[in-house]
Structure formats: structure tokens, C-alpha cells
Amino acid sequence: MTATMTALLATTVEPLPEEAVGAVAESAASAAAAAPAALGNDLDLLQLVLHASIPVQLVMVLLLFASVASWVIIFRKKKVLDRAEREADQFEERFWSGAELSKLYAGSTGRNREIGGLEAIFEAGFREFGRQRQRRGADSRMQLEGAQRGMRVASAREIDGLEHNLEFLANVGSIAPYVGLFGTVWGIMISFQGLANMKEATIATVAPGISEALIATAMGLFAAIPAVWAYNRFATKVDRISVRYEAFSEEFSSILERQSHTDDTPAAAPNVPLR
């Protein structure tokens, strides 16, 4: 045993020949160069789309259209809601500034422009209030109920306009992932069906088809995530605006109720034609 250990210690490690060192270095350089190339091929999304089957490509086109339409609606809806909040702030500032209701009504109807939001609710309520006051035999309760009906109709019309196209965002957010999953399942099914004619099936044979199929799921998520986020944000903002409209209608009803019990002069009531 001692002799064996002595022999091992006496053995010297000879360096590798220069040819072997060169071969190892060349192999390492080739592997390093091949890795980025392989990574680039894996991330070539355009090639994955172009080499996908026809049904998968149709699914991708449908998801692309849904994504583009969603973004168009998102930008337009943001503009509409921001304008509704801005106009509500401006009208409430005029309304609570102490101006006479008849002058506010004249200002809303006298200008050649399309009114909306709180101003439209005010105009509808005060117009109906003036009509009821001009009718014979209409007591204060009938006047107030008529104004409230007018404001409810105008408020429902305004909220319906704010909610327009929100259902499209909800549908895209809920359906797009399943549409993408359908394209993925179809692509994987085609890939495995192609393996039936091969004697040897390796991961390199299946990987391209599966990659092309999975891009459909990725596109489904790409279309669904912004749509869900925008729908939740816009629906919350519409709810806040709706509460604001209802609060204004209640406050304005209280003002009209107090005014209906006073002995106003004929000039104080709005001169609204009975149409």
C-alpha cells in the first residue's frame, strides 16, 4: 500500500498537447456563438407567425384586430370621461355661484351647442318644471315629479353614452384568452399529428410546432390584459360620475321643491313652450 501511494505521488501530470487545447477552445467558441443564434431563432416572433398553420394564423389575426379595436376604444373613452368630469366641474361652479336658475337655463338653451352631463340634466329638469308651472291645476307635487322625471331620463341618457363600448372591452378581456388557447390547442394537435409519420420523435421535432402554437396564447393575453384593466378603470369612473349626477339631481330637486312653494312672479319661471 505504501509503495502504491509513493508511485502515485511520484507521477507527474503532463500538460495537454497544444492541438488538444486548440480543439477545446474552438469548441467553446463555437458553442458561445451558437447560443445567441439559437436564442434569436427562439425569439423570432415573425417567423413563428408565418410558419403557423392557417387556423392558428386566423386566430392571431382575430386577436390582433381585437387588440387594436380595444386600444382605440380605450383612448376615445378616456377622452370622453375626462371631458364629462371637466364639464361637470365647470357647470357646478356656475350653478353654486349664486346665479339665478332662469339665467342658467337661458344660458344652456340660448347657445347653439350640444350640451351634456350635469348641464343636460339641469336643462331637462328645469324645462319640465317650467312646463308644469304653466299648466293650470298643477300643484307643487306635480311640478316636482315632472322635473324629477325629466332629470332621470336625461341622467340615464348621459350614463348610457358614457358606458358605450365598455361591453366590448369586457368581452375582449374575458374571451381573448380562450380564443388564444383554442389556437394553441389546435397548433399542438397539428404538431402531434405530424409525428405519426416519423419513426423517431424528439423534442427538436416537436418544439417548432408547439412554439408556433403558444404564440396564439401570448397574443390572447396581450389583447385581454389591457382590455380588463381599462374596463375596470372606466367602469369605476362611470360609477363615480353616475353617483355625482344622482347627487346633483337630489340637490336640484330640493331647490325646485322650495321654489314651488313660493309665490314666484310669472317672469321668474322659465318661458318654456309646451311642445
What this model shows, in words?
The protein is mainly α and 275 residues long. It folds into 2 domains: 35 residues; 209 residues, no CATH class. 80% of the residues lie in helices and 0% in strands. Helix 6 packs parallel to helix 9. The longest helix has 58 residues. The termini are far apart.
Key phrases:
275 residues, mainly alpha, 2 domains, 9 helices, 80% helix
Write the layout of secondary structure elements.
Layout: H1 2-10, H2 18-42, H3 45-50, H4 54-95, H5 101-110, H6 118-134, H7 140-162, H8 166-194, H9 203-260
Please give a quick description of this structure.
By secondary structure, the protein is mainly alpha-helical. The protein is about 80% helix and about 0% strand.
How much beta, percentage-wise? Answer: under 5%
Mean pLDDT metric: 77
Total number of helical segments? Answer: 9
Largest sheet: none
Task: Return Rg in Å.
Answer: 36 Å
- Order of SSEs: HHHHHHHHH
Helix content: over 70%
